[in-house]
Write the structure tokens for this entry.
Amino acid sequence: MTEVSKLEIGQTAPEFSLLNDKGKSISISSFKGQKAILFFFPAALTPGCTKEACDFNDSLNSFKSAGYTVIGISPDGVDKLAKFREKESLNFELLSDVDKEVHKLYGAFGEKSLYGRLYKGVLRSTFALDENGVITMAGYNVRATGHVTKLKKDLGLIS
């Protein structure tokens, strides 16, 4: 299996447009002029992804006060993301990447291993972008639990 190339600090975030959980097309360029956090997660309504999304939701004020917009991206369809937002009362953009093309652009889809078996899947990944869409932080294979706290420390939002 070939590995998808990873993005690095200093690169411009690849352009994309995806549907949000309300069926509206959202492009990354619409966030130019503001900082953004993109987090790629494997599946809505699963324990790990719910924990991660709720941690982001609980930390929204901290991110917003530092000028960040939080955006979650998964291969789930629009309807499933709408259920996820409703069930967990999420207050940030949820974008649907059913064909995983944006995941691949960002290196958030690739080879994984479970119990010694190799397979292709979503690599839980998070990126911080500056106002010009330049990557200031890139994290691959992050953990669902504790990741948001580490991200806030890395971004200097908490000591």
Observations:
- The longest strand covers residues 68-74.
